[in-house]
Amino acid sequence: MTMRWEDMKHIAPSVPTLKNHTATLVGSRIFVFGGYDGRRNHNDLHIFDCDTLSWETYTDPRSSNQDSTPPSLSAAFPASRNGHTATLAHNSIYILGGWLGSGPHAANDLHILHVNSMRWESPITTGTPPGPCNMHTTDYLPNINGLLVFRGGDGKEYLNDLHLFDLPTRHWSRPTTHGTPPSPRANHSSAVLDHRLFVFGGWNGTHRLNDLHMLDTTTWQWTSISPSSEGSMMLPFPRAGMTFVAVRRRFFLFGGYGSSPNHPFPAKCFSDLHVLDTDQTSTHWTPVVPSGHSTCTPPAYLSSTGCSSDLASDANPNDARPFDSPHAPRDPRVVTVEGVGPSRRAGHTCTVVGRRLFIFGGSHHNEYLNDMHVLDTDPSPQAVVALAAPMDFNSALRPYANSPTFSDISFIVEGHVVYAHKLVLSMASDHFRAMFSAGFREASAAAIVIPNMSRGGFEAMMAYVYSGHVVGEMGWEDLLELLVAADQYMLDHLKQVCERQLQLALDKDNVGFLMEAAERANASQLMAVCRHFVRNYADKESTRHANDDTP
């Protein structure tokens, strides 16, 4: 598995440096609210358009004379804060708690931004709310149509109480759970997969954590999920202030603040990336390693033997380059990443947009950040022509393609004669070399009948053999025939050329034909491209239908 950091240097950092802010996806836009810049809290609303890669900002008119806020947003901006949560449900963003910077406790207020009308609301609720919340987590669970709050700190203590906000009734309650909940903590991370809530890591006032817990909201059963006993399992260092998100039934952990068991002081920020595969009872952590030409920081992890590998202190200085050759051997258990990733940080946000992760802001010691980084967790494979053309004297041979001059072999294709030369064909292809060797009936034949291939396809293959490239424009159906022929006649360079051109012609109407031909021709690059297209086209259609069904 290979992932790729995309180049986002062209995005203008037109928003403040922020940490402990929130970033909430609505459609194709990320709504960033609040945060701390090292001097003060904010309550501006910054919206990042993932399609145009541009920012727009709405400011509280009570704190700014700028005419940058529409009338619908002119009232009831929440107070400036950091360490709050902002959770999307039914096209509204629910903002809860946070640290206001005054008083002994965190905030306990709830605000709603109705995105369709862009209006703020301070709702009237019933039941007993969680109380002061800071560095907590809030997640929307569709199966219960409610928000689950796992409280972190209240400004004085570290907590582990669970609260449910029922969206239709706007009623707060305390669910009765079974099993052992996570220990008290703050600045942890959480993510939802189906009907399950996962809680990872955090800070308990004494030390940082790297444990993982799961709450099944159909049974309200807490389970502590133990790491896999496999030798390849590597557990991330204990940390707080990291991000932990679910993408396509996997979890991705990035960054945070912590230390290694071998070097507990001083603590530092990480820029490592880990992938978690989990079932009901066990987990398998995979540290994401930089490819041989990536500038991403290697991961910091604990091996299953308990030894630490603090690779995060020695970043690879090499520049990012294009993909490896697809023919390079790869361990299927290894996850690699290419490109230039984010620097060390904690208090950042990570927003899932389809298969991509948008990481924004955070801080590293006294440096506060406002950069945006995008990780493509499933980048499109790039069919490449890595092999050299089979001969260096193609320009001299080109006039002899299908020419009777010096021809010592001919082929009958659909009743038509195609002239060729044994020496040229033998140099280009092991298949032809074997065909003309002693012991094969074709060795003594003056003309060889070629069945199951069109005259145009065979002549195109012969033109390639004599010229070193595909001559003329070809439709995808003709390219498929040429691809299969290239595999049959062991013309590997031609096969790669066909794969590359077929990738450019791929669409939803022909992907089935291309996959069938790729299987027949053992075209691994084309098959990978087709599977990626099917995977992501299905995701796109699913998202479109989900948006159509949104209330």
From TrEMBL:
Please, which domain of life does this record's source organism belong to?
Answer: Eukaryota
Q: Whose protein is this, by species? A: Aphanomyces astaci (Crayfish plague agent)
Keyword list (alphabetical) reads: Kelch repeat, Repeat
Annotated BTB domain residues: 407-470
**Bias-annotated ranges (Basic and acidic residues):** 321-332
Tagged with keyword tRNA-binding: no
Where are the stretches annotated Disordered? 307-332
The name this protein goes by in its record: BTB domain-containing protein
